[in-house]
Amino acid sequence: MEQLKSADWLVVINPNAGMRAGEKDWPLISQLLVQNGFEFDAVFTERAFHAIEIVRTMVKEKGYQKIIAVGGDGTLNEVVNGIFQQDRYTTSEITLGMITVGTGNDWGRMYEFPKKYEKAISILANGKTFLQDVGKVQYRYDSADKSRYFINMAGMGYDALVAKKTNLMKAKGKGGTIAYLYNLITGLFQYQNTHLNIVIDGKEVVNDKVFSLSIGICRYNGGGMMQLPFAVPDDGLFDITVIRKTTRLRVVRNIKNLYDGTFVKLPEVDTFTGKVISITSTPRHSIYLETDGESLGHSPLDFELVPKAIRLIVRKKALKKFGGNNGSDI
Q1: What is d(CA 220, CA 109) in angstroms, rounded to the nearest whole number?
Q2: Which end of the chain is less congested by CB atoms within 10 angstroms, N or C?
Q3: What's the whole-model pTM score?
Q4: What tens digit of pLDDT does each residue of 48-75 get?
């Protein structure tokens, strides 16, 4: 027998997000939600991937169709994967809002989402929604095939190494943008350019040594780096940036250009768009993967785009910027 939900909204809180800001700031966030008329049930995550389980179970068993993620990009990623794993509703029938308390907040940066809780909750209360594309990647973890949905960006090669080093520091309470920049530099002395074969929509576009590779729907990762400067979140296409073999000195000299997207003008950088992407490496399992900042597995990798698959609450000016007719009220 179905258990009835006690409120309209499910709020999923990551207490560890933002150097434990999720835990510390929850009393204030909760108070502001109540003041803005939200009736909600709150659940805290207890471990990695727990938000996936919470959302999958609570939607399927209790019928929630309105969810708020309180955390960072990784928390949002898990909530999205929970939405895709439930089978009670189509994914676009569920409305998802975000209160950012993480250190990167790159998805929120795409939509100019405010970090101040009062303003963020005011946007949630306003209820303007936008259907965004979602990416799906199949990868290998040890010898097993795995898959993951992502809402922002996937990084491979050097990008994945930096994410892995930063996630290890986060686990020790040492995360943040400074940690990412530190690992961006120190990782240069560990990473080796990797030979990749990249096929986009059936056409081979790269068969060469590659330094780093980004595939996504939105523009930013790594705490504000504009890795995909031309991305449009509902155009039905992945944006892809490939940085071919380069030197440590070239990387250091051009770090600042990662933040405004002008690095794509460099001769060793190529940009593409497409819907289906296959990536193999030599050696076969030698390139690693992160999605929305979370370290996953390794190559071979297969990406496919799911158009307009997730309904997100965004601010009004984001609808004007990206949405066109792709917007509505809750």
Answers
A1: 7
A2: N
A3: 0.92
A4: 899 999 999 999 999 999 999 999 999 9
Residue 298, domain extent: 135-308
Q: Strand pairing of 66-71 and 9-13?
A: parallel
User: What is the per-residue pLDDT across 109-119, written as a single tens digit (0 to 9) for each?
Assistant: 999 999 899 99
Scan for tokens 């030979």, then name that residue: 195
Same domain, 27 and 108: yes
**Six-digit token string for 114:** 């405010």
Q: Is residue 3, in this structure, part of any structural domain at all? A: no
Q: What is the CATH number of the domain that holds 301?
A: 2.60.200.40
Q: Which among 134, 87, 76 is positioned nearest to 305, based on CA atoms?
A: 134
CB 153 within 8 A of CB 106: yes
List residues bridging with 9 in a β-sheet: 40, 66
- Same domain, yes or no: 63 and 101: yes
For 185, phi then psi, to 5°, come to -80, -50
pLDDT digits (tens, 9 = 90+) for 192-233: 899 999 999 999 999 999 999 999 999 999 888 999 999 999
Residues in the chain, how many? 330
**C-alpha span between 35 and 324 (Å, rounded):** 31
Report the mean per-residue pLDDT for the chain: 92
Instruction: With H, G, I as helix, E, B as strand and everything else as coil, classify residue 31.
Output: helix
CB 248 within 8 Å of CB 215: no
The percent of residues above 70 in pLDDT, for the chain, comes to: 96
